[in-house]
Amino acid sequence: MSLKKITSLTMLLSMFLMTYTGIMLFISPPGRVAKWSNWEILGLGKEEYAQVHSTFMVLFIIATILHVYYNWKPMISYMKNKAKVVIIFTKEMAVAFVITLLFLVGTLYEISPFSTFINFGEDIKNSWEQKYEKAPYSHAELSTLEEFSSKLGFDLNRSMEILKANNIEADEMDTLKEIAKNNNISAQKVFSLLSEKQKSTISKAESLTGLGRKNISELANDLGITANELIEKLKTVGIEAKNDDKFKSLCEEVGRTPREVIEELGF
Q: Which of 91, 105, 161, 220 could form a disulfide with 230 if both were Cys (CB 3.0 to 4.6 A apart)?
């Protein structure tokens, strides 16, 4: 067997796997939505895709190092001039460096078309939130059934009865995540069953999730008002905003958290 061939083929297979998992992570919903809805594609959730992507990244790096080792002479020849003298910054190296720098700077400084591509991914991620019923508050799946019922104003005994009637095994000290996992359903499904029979008393401010990712238009939609109405309200607390501005960034500029500003606006 040829170790050189094995190395090249391992690089190729790793690249295919990393490309696939990278695409899945690119289009996957935000973590809070993925965990709440038990999001999966082809039997794998967001966490599993991230884990596979990370391990194959390590394999790809190892294979790349070996590939460089086995192909050292050809690679050195790429950096030789016509006189066979090694020059690190050849024309080809300069072009490769510029391309790499272009992608790095374009991404970090949100320059088109890089920003368009990133925003496209964000739009796909956020679209999942419209498909699934939102969590009543951030990281609700980590709350025990007792805590969850208390926060939403549900009667704990009634909640237990509803779950039992739907053949869902649960203990009041189990988290929604544990209940969902043990019964092969999502935390969202548990909430849906409970909210069908009981009315939540949670405030609008507490029910808002994903504030760090939302722009003004998206936040206004969650609050049930127009973007212009929200912009005018923000002016009353000293925040100048536009439709596409990220809410979290605006809050940080005035030294407040998103939650503090929401409550100050009276929601």
A: 220
Distance, in Å, from the CA atom of 99 to the CA atom of 91, rounded to the nearest integer, reads 12
Task: Per residue of the chain (267 residues), give pLDDT as tens.
Answer: 888 999 999 999 999 999 999 999 999 998 889 999 999 999 999 999 999 999 999 999 999 999 999 989 888 887 777 767 777 777 888 899 999 999 999 999 989 999 999 989 988 988 887 788 788 888 899 999 999 999 899 999 999 999 999 999 999 999 999 999 999 999 999 999 999 888 877 666 666 677 767 888 888 887 788 989 889 989 888 899 888 888 888 888 888 888 888 888 877
Q: Tokens 């690119």, residue?
A: 26
Q: Which two tokens stand for residue 8?
A: 């090249």
User: Read out DSSP for 91-160?
Assistant: HHHHHHHHHHHHHHHHHHTT-TTHHHHHHHHHHHHHHHHHHSPPPSSTTGGGSBHHHHHHHHT--HHHHH
